Amino acid sequence: GKRKLLDSLARYADHIDATFGPEPGKKPGYPGHPEIELALVRLYHATGNRRYLELASFFIDERGQSGNGKEHYYDVEARERGDDPAKFWARSYDYNQSSKPIREQEKVVGHAVRAMYLFSAVADLAGECDDASLLEACDRLWDNLINKRMYITGGIGPSRHNEGFTTDYDLPDETAYAETCATIGLVMWNHRLLQFDGEQRFADVMERGLYNGFLSGVSLSGDRFYYENPLSSAGDHHHVPWFECPCCPGNVARNIASIGKYFYSTGPDGLWVHLFAGSQAEMLVNGSVVKVKQSTLYPWDGAVGIELELAQPQTFTLHVRVPGWCGGSGGSQGFRVAINGVEQSLRAEKNGYLAIRREWKNGDTLAYIMEMPIQPMFANPAVRQLEGRVAIQRGPVVYCLEGVDHGNIILDRIAVDTKDIAGFTVEQRPDLLNGVAVIHGRGTVINEPTSESLYSPQAPSVSEVALTAIPYCTWDNREPGEMRVWLRAK
């Protein structure tokens, strides 16, 4: 019930509203680093004051407007402070997503964190204002990002120069920037898109980001961080306690505190289960309290137990996501379901969720078992840096090799037969890295050369080698050394 902080934030927003806007006497501008837009929507929810929603809409609609005699606002602003707009260091307003209005943008460009915060606000406004054109822009940009510009870990933004995007299919592994904050923003945006029609594809991206590109950004001790998250390292990239620009540590803490809201939601016809982990929540379903509890070792095991507690029997639909990696994207059925111990014959709906409608009673249980095969993963051939490479994934978790498990072997010299990967074995290791599932297999390694010649007509010899793969999100938590996600394929 305390309003002191809320009221001070409202006064601050009132000052911004008095300064910016379309009205005479106000500046027709918008922020260089988007994020206030999504904050204004949240402030509208907290206060009910529609002016904050309208200001967020103005910032979104005005961004990138120019032409037909109208000068770009950043050009006007630069001249007012005595700068030459042509000397803007980034050389393009793509950097802050203002080269054109959001409804006209076709590709995800510029600074990755800026883009994710902007798109999150666009999704918010699409819902609040029932604006189909904003939702269409989100869908178009989502398709470009996920299918042409995202790392397998859910990391985004390959370039250090602009902390962001370059061109389609440009996804170098060793020099990947993939800022931790950008993956957090990716999760935020997809969580918002998930609320529209409950499409599994958005929850799949959230899960990929959370279990891989986000968790890699913080050490298992919780007090050391990555700003950037490459997919290969020669042994010179390590978690550090702090940064000159310390956005990531605070953002990691915020995301961890927010994770609970990502797992469940309610809709007009029932309860939705989007993500899986040991958890419990109390929610209103059709006006009545429903307690839901998950018991699972996920993501190391695909068995999930769901138990419901209700004061009285209630009819509603329980929607449970079927991840794309186990059949939720139209592939073969890779799961089993039992209700109160009785096997059910169920298929995923078009949106990638099970839809189980029945009268639910107190103590009802759902046993949901997802198969977790070890899968070889290949990049689109257009990703030139990953041609002839293969990655290993099990469930939502991307794996890597780490030098500490492979002696003095240079990891880039290791190759695996892609046909063998599905037959690799899984070992649960409660004693390792806070308890993970590791993968064991065999490959080959190029032997040390027999001469010092830089070039030779003779192919190098190879030897067989035992491999141990660990979850990518846990690397650099033991001895310093090499790491590699993408291995040579044969």
Task: Summarize, please.
The chain has 490 residues and is an alpha+beta fold. The chain contains ten helices and 20 strands.
Please, could you describe this protein's structure?
- With 490 residues, the chain is of the alpha+beta class.
- The chain folds into 3 domains: 20-258, no CATH class; 264-370, Sandwich (Immunoglobulin-like), CATH 2.60.40.1180; 374-489, no CATH class.
- Helices cover 27% and strands 23% of the residues.
- The strands form 3 sheets. The chain has a 6-stranded mixed barrel.
- Strand 8 and strand 9 (342-344) form a beta hairpin.
- The termini are far apart.
- The relative contact order is 0.08.
- The model has no long low-confidence stretch (mean pLDDT 96).
Net shape: globular
- Helix and strand string, N-terminal first? HHHHHHHHEHHEEEEEEEEEEEEEEEEEEE
Rg over CA atoms, rounded to whole Å, is 25 Å
Task: Please indicate the percent range of residues in DSSP E strands (runs of 2 or more).
Answer: 15-25%
What structural class do you assign from the helix and strand content? alpha+beta
| Regions with little confidence, pLDDT below 50 for 5+ residues | none
- Biggest sheet, in brief? 6 strands, mixed, barrel
Could you report the average pLDDT, rounded to the nearest whole number? 96
Measured as a percent range, the helix fraction is 25-40%
N→C terminal distance: 63 Å
Order of strands in the sheet with most strands: 13-14-18-17-15-20
Number of strands: 20
Kindly give the count of domains.
Answer: 3
The total count of helices amounts to 10
